[in-house]
């Protein structure tokens, strides 16, 4: 069925006049008349009462008008989807991730995604997960990697990362020979911690507050390479993920008992429009990191 004729027919049905419909569409009235005649021939039904001034559409015409509106809306949606697929060549994504996760999980993934979609611009914003969640809610980000254990009802989530939080320390530290340690033992040591707002800091701060413990924080930094250097120089111990210490022969990762899970999810605002570029990035991250 010819969509252009259906569009003409819908305009005619809405405006109730060949003259007004032709002006609205931008064609001559005889051309509209011919188009409607061809539509009637195409469907094999009489659609327009040309002799009736107050009832332009026949009963069959009214049925077709209802169906035509649905079909034309679907056609517009298809057109938008196809346009967005083309826009993958020039889309943009505002993606929030913490410095630690960005450094250890995403260099390879981002590079591969950029090779596949070279013209999609990705703006990476580095903040703690609490700040990133607020930026999502404010509409300042399209996607962010944030904590998945405390879900906000305004956001949608898909879990990407589930790892264990460990205590990182120099090989010479007395705890390095233990199979595990408690948060109580950890909190009694000189500490090197992330800034407030980062989960690896919050898990310690919440425990200390709950048990009314005073922490001996020797250094606060979000720079993981600086943290590792300070650990090697025995300035203190820290919370981290074991993969961060995997290539560090001078450092040891010790599990907490009970174990502490580190769950991160890719999140986006429910009411925020998710572009095709963002959807492509979400699919790629899900396939790469799960």
Helix and strand succession? HHHHEHHEHEEEHEHEHEHEH
Look up the CATH topology of the largest domain. Answer: D-Maltodextrin-Binding Protein, domain 2
Structural class: alpha/beta
The residue-averaged pLDDT reads: 90
Q: Proportion of β residues?
A: 15-25%
Number of domains: 3
Q: With helices defined by DSSP (H or I, 4 residues minimum), what is the helix count?
A: 12
Compute the CA-based radius of gyration. 31 Å
Quote the distance from N terminus to C terminus. Answer: 45 Å
- The best one-word shape is rod-shaped
Q: Brief overview, please?
A:
The protein has about 290 residues and is an alpha/beta fold. The protein has helices at about 5-15, 20-25, 30-45, 60-85, 100-105, 105-115, 130-135, 185, 200-210, 225-230, 240-245, 275-290, and strands spanning about 90-95, 120-125, 145, 155-170, 180, 190-195, 215-220, 240, 250-270. The strands form 2 sheets. Strands 1, 2, 3, 4, 5, 8 and 9 form a 7-stranded mixed sheet that branches.
Structural overview:
Belongs to the LysR transcriptional regulatory family. Keywords: DNA-binding, Transcription, Transcription regulation. Residues 1-58 form the HTH lysR-type domain. This is DNA-binding transcriptional regulator, LysR family. Helices cover 47% and strands 23% of the residues. By secondary structure, the chain is of the alpha/beta class. The protein has three domains: 3-87, Winged helix-like DNA-binding domain superfamily/Winged helix DNA-binding domain (Arc Repressor Mutant, subunit A, Orthogonal Bundle), CATH 1.10.10.10; 92-160 and 265-289, Periplasmic binding protein-like II (D-Maltodextrin-Binding Protein, domain 2, 3-Layer(aba) Sandwich), CATH 3.40.190; 162-262, D-Maltodextrin-Binding Protein, domain 2. The strands form two sheets. Strands 1, 2, 3, 4, 5, 8 and 9 form a seven-stranded mixed beta sheet that branches. Strands 6-7 form a two-stranded parallel sheet. The protein starts with a helix and ends with a helix. The mean pLDDT is 90.
């Amino acid at each position: 069925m010819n969509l252009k004729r259906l569009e003409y027919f819908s305009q005619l049905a809405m405006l109730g006049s060949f003259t007004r419909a032709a002006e609205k569409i931008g064609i001559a009235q005889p051309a509209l008349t011919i188009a409607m005649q061809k539509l009637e021939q195409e469907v094999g039904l009489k659609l327009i009462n040309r002799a009736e001034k107050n009832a332009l559409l026949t009963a069959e015409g009214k049925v077709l008008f209802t169906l035509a509106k649905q079909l034309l809306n679907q056609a517009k949606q298809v057109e938008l989807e196809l346009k967005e697929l083309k826009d993958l060549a020039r889309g943009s994504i505002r993606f929030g991730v913490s410095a630690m996760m960005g450094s250890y999980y995403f260099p390879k993934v981002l590079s591969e995604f950029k090779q596949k979609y070279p013209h999609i611009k990705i703006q990476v914003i580095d903040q703690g997960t609490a700040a990133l969640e607020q930026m999502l809610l404010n509409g300042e980000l399209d996607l962010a990697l944030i904590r998945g254990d405390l879900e906000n009802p305004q956001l949608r989530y898909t879990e990407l990362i589930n790892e264990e939080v460990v205590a990182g320390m120099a090989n010479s530290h007395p705890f390095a020979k233990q199979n595990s340690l408690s948060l109580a033992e950890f909190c009694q040591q000189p500490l090197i911690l992330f800034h407030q707002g980062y989960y690896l800091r919050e898990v310690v701060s919440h425990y200390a507050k709950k048990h009314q413990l005073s922490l001996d924080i020797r250094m606060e930094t979000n720079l993981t390479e600086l943290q590792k250097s300070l650990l090697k120089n025995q300035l203190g111990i820290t919370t981290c993920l074991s993969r961060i210490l995997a290539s560090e022969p001078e450092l040891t990762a010790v599990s907490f008992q009970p174990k502490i899970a580190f769950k991160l999810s890719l999140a986006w605002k429910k009411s925020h429009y998710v572009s095709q570029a963002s959807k492509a990035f979400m699919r790629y991250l899900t396939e790469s990191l799960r």
